Amino acid sequence: MEFSAVLLSAGQSTRMGRDKALLPINGGVLWQRQWDLLGAVGVSDRWLSARAEQAWVPDGIAIARDRMTGAGPLAGIAAALEQMSGTHLIVLAVDLPRMEPAWFEKLKSLCSPGVGAVGQRDGFYEPLAAIYPRELARDAVARLIRGEYALQRFITAAGAAMQSVEIGAAEAAWFANWNEREDLTANQA
Fold it and tell me: What is the pLDDT of residues 67-96, one digit of tens each?
């Protein structure tokens, strides 16, 4: 198996009021922290899912452009699934500042040919820190065309192509996200 990766940073950051990718963290910015994390988990290639107007994107970084705007994270996942060279796609949202490489190592151990892995807690999947098999590319694109953007339904429909694992108490903190200014203040305290 060979793993590719995409960092989802094309969201509008409406609730935050500014581009989440550029939020300060540990002396740097959030997108760079997440980009480095993806590099640390052993990927053959990686993309940044970004909007055309995000002028901060550095030269030399591969970009996965959404097939359609306003379709949420599924659009970035679909674009990367179509472009990747690996057998599996590691997906990470830019607004999960506490995510650790250990999570992806755990998910990688659950993957097999044609089967990805996703965490689950309280009956819901955590689709923005997951691994998707290349075989889901066609379904992802078909869902975009039909206007079906919900990742919970996408994963449920994948059936045996997505292995789920319960997120443990120690891992739960890794999934705290920054969506609003209050999240930023609370998480940096």
Answer: 667 778 999 999 999 999 899 999 999 989
Span 3-188 CATH architecture = Alpha-Beta Complex (3.90)
Q: Does an H or E element contain 57, and which? A: none
Q: Residue 33 forms beta bridges with which residues?
A: none
Kindly state the tokens that stand for 106. Answer: 């755990």
- Residue 64 has a pLDDT of 79
Cα separations (Å) of 121 from 34, 67, 77? 22, 30, 21
Structure confidence at residue 22 (pLDDT): 67
Q: What one-letter code names the amino acid at 16?
A: M
What dihedral do alpha carbons 124, 128, 129, 132 form, nearest 10°? 90
139 residue type, one letter: D
Evaluate whether 91 touches 8 at the Cβ level (below 8 Å): yes
pLDDT tens, position by position, 154-179: 999 999 999 999 999 999 999 988 65
The span from the CA of 177 to the CA of 34, in Å, is 13
Confidence of residue 142 (pLDDT cuts 50, 70, 90): very high
Element (H, E) at 91: strand 88-93
What contacts 83, CB < 8 A, 6 or more positions away? 47, 62, 64
- Domain definitions of the chain by residue range: 3-188
